[in-house]
Write a structure and sequence with these properties.
GO molecular function: ATP binding; transferase activity
Keywords: ATP-binding, Nucleotide-binding, Transferase
Largest sheet: 5 strands, antiparallel
Helix content: 40-55%
Structural class: alpha+beta
Family: Belongs to the protein kinase superfamily. ADCK protein kinase family.
Protein name: ABC1-ubiquinol-cytochrome-C reductase complex assembly-like protein, putative
Oligomer: single chain
InterPro entries: ABC1_dom (IPR004147), ADCK3_dom (IPR034646), Atypical_kinase_ADCK (IPR051409), Kinase-like_dom_sf (IPR011009)
Shape: globular
Strand content: 5-15%
Number of domains: 3
Radius of gyration: 26 Å
């Protein structure tokens, strides 16, 4: 074929593929976005408080560094003691001025320290450094959110055109240099990857949320080139410039919106797919709050965005048939509409607060400030904890307890509340060392499950725990996972994936179960291509959110390297479940 003919073919293929890849590239984009990272202390540039602990086995006396706003502030403490201190507190000031020794501070009675933000707690023989970086984990860049349907369509079209041109250019460049197929896809050149990352970060909305839906928690369903884009998009986030932010705040709170706050930080601490989070204080006592502000017209753009995505992806062959894109997008529409309703989220927060409000609970749920909450703005209590995503180097005892709490909560949400916060984002869980509790945030993805569905799903998971293959097939048919006409290969793969979920909870499994060395997620991942190829029916709609959360809980326990007595959790939570 002549070079012009090959170029024409390349352009034809690239034009269709380019429109698909930039949408498929959002798979998993929110996995590490700190959409809920507002449980940190204030950033150094805002009247800072930096938190640091430095257990040092050789420490003999107190030390304190300078207290400038950008300094890492802390002091050495006794071996095997975890100390949490606010550097600008009177305690830190006295230490820095040399008026008190470390010993006198740490030996002070609790009554004398009741107003001081300091806590000491004995740990095992763990020596570790802990520094809570108060800056966002991703790069935040101001850019105006495309808010009109025509404007968003223009951005999609311009991306497709630029990718097509970039692909053609890369094809010609490789042809001139004689590069072969081993050079990789010309569509995923360095220039095109940069275009994808930039545009996806700016668009927000359904384009980013699609990733959370189509991804199966590290299942690697998509080609490696697309995952390469995702890794870069995860490290970029855009937020509204001040002019656009003020338009939104005026629309929600009126022209004098600023009078509702004693302080409002216009630079968000986090920005995700449908909104961004700001720190503010409110009268009369300068109470700190986290204010979620929704991007303009993002709720109205969901349906048009998904319609465009559906048309492009359906016309391509890039995604496996077993994903059942139409069903996925239909479920996604409903869930996204729920997430865009901040008044609904406020109600979910309050319901979880009722479920977890007991004195013996190991969880804290933020208070909602209803007077500052609308469908597009949500005001919540500022939580002081640290994202558990940063806990890889924390003491083993603490990591084990956090994992135990998260797995316990996951089962309670299913079998006790029948209301689950389904977003598996690790930053939705904050650990507060002062209270030794988990703080829960971001309830937009909460959903309920019917008693009928949960009864059958409980029986299915119980069958998996008991390794009852026949019962797994029976309840998979009843729930709609299987039709009865599947090949034996498909049935075997499905039953195997279900029974793997029950492994940590079995009486025959050594306890505590080591999530660090577990292979469950890898084994399930290996079965996914078979199920996508041979599946005859889409899974129940409840499965999209339920499996997302369960797999996320397992992965979080693994990331923490935790050892958990899963059997005891199962006996305690599942043992209390009442059928019928």
């Amino acid at each position: 074929m002549s070079p012009p003919g090959r170029l024409y073919d390349a352009l034809t293929v690239a034009y269709a593929a380019a429109q698909v890849v930039h949408r498929a590239a959002v798979i998993g984009v929110e996995k590490n976005l700190p959409s809920v990272a507002y449980g940190t202390v204030p950033r150094p540039r805002n009247n800072p408080t930096v938190v640091e602990t430095r257990p040092t086995a050789t420490a003999q006396e107190a030390e304190s560094k300078g207290l400038s706003s950008n300094a890492e502030t802390g002091f050495k403490i006794q071996p095997n003691t975890w100390t949490y201190i606010q550097p600008h507190s009177p305690v830190a000031q006295r230490l820095s001025q040399g008026t008190d020794s470390q010993a006198s501070i740490l030996n002070t009675s609790a009554a004398q320290l009741q107003d001081e933000p300091i806590l000491t707690a004995k740990t095992r023989q763990d020596n570790f450094d802990y520094y809570e970086d108060t800056e966002p984990a991703v790069k935040l860049t101001p850019s105006r959110v495309p808010s009109s349907r025509l404007g968003r369509l223009f951005h999609y079209g311009s991306l497709a055109a630029s990718l097509t041109a970039g692909t053609a250019s890369e094809y010609v460049r490789r042809a001139a240099r004689g590069s072969g197929a081993d050079a990789g896809s010309p569509m995923m050149s360095e220039a095109n990857v940069s275009r994808l990352v930039d545009k996806l970060s700016r668009m927000r909305g359904a384009a980013l949320k699609l990733g959370q839906f189509l991804s199966i928690q590290d299942a690697h369903v998509l080609p490696e080139q697309i995952e390469r884009v995702l890794r870069q998009v995860q490290n970029n986030a855009h937020y509204m410039p001040n002019s656009q932010l003020e338009q939104v705040l005026r629309a929600e709170f009126g022209p004098n919106w600023n009078e509702k706050f004693t302080h409002f930080d216009p630079i968000p601490i986090a920005s995700a797919s449908i909104g961004q989070v700001h720190k503010a204080t409110i009268p009369p006592n300068d109470t700190p709050i986290a204010l979620k502000v929704q991007f303009p017209n993002i709720a109205e753009s969901i349906y048009s965005d998904l319609a465009n995505i559906s048309t492009l992806l359906t016309a391509s062959a890039l995604l496996p048939r077993g994903l059942y894109l139409d069903r996925t997008l239909a479920v996604m529409k409903g869930e996204l509409a729920d997430e865009c309703d901040y008044e609904r989220e406020a109600t979910c927060i309050e319901r979880f607060g009722e479920f977890l409000g007991g004195e013996n609970e190991r969880f804290r749920v933020p208070r909602v400030f209803r007077e500052l909450t609308t469908k597009r703005a949500l005001a919540m209590e500022w939580m002081e904890g640290v994202s558990v995503a940063k806990g890889a180097r924390w003491p083993q005892r603490i990591r084990d307890q956090i994992a135990t709490d998260i797995l316990t909560l996951c089962l309670r949400e299913l079998f006790e509340f029948r209301l689950m916060q389904t977003d598996p984002n690790w930053s939705n869980f904050l650990y507060n060392p002062r209270t030794d509790k988990l703080e829960l945030i971001d309830f937009g993805a909460s959903r309920e499950y019917s008693k009928e569905f949960m009864d059958d799903w409980f029986k299915l998971l119980s069958a998996a725990v008991q390794e009852d293959r026949d019962a797994c097939v029976e309840y998979s048919l009843k729930l709609g996972y299987l039709t009865g006409a599947e090949s034996q290969e498909m049935i075997d793969a499905h039953v195997r994936s279900v029974t793997l979920l029950g492994v940590p909870f079995r009486a025959s499994t050594p306890q505590p179960f080591s999530f660090k060395s577990q292979t469950i997620t890898d084994e399930i991942r290996a079965l996914i291509p078979v199920m996508l190829r041979l599946r005859l029916t889409p899974p129940p709609t409840e499965t999209y959110s339920l499996n997302r959360k369960l797999s996320g809980a397992f992965l979080l326990c693994g990331r923490l390297g935790a050892d958990v007595d899963c059997r005891s959790i199962w006996e305690r939570v599942a043992g209390a479940y009442k059928l019928g």
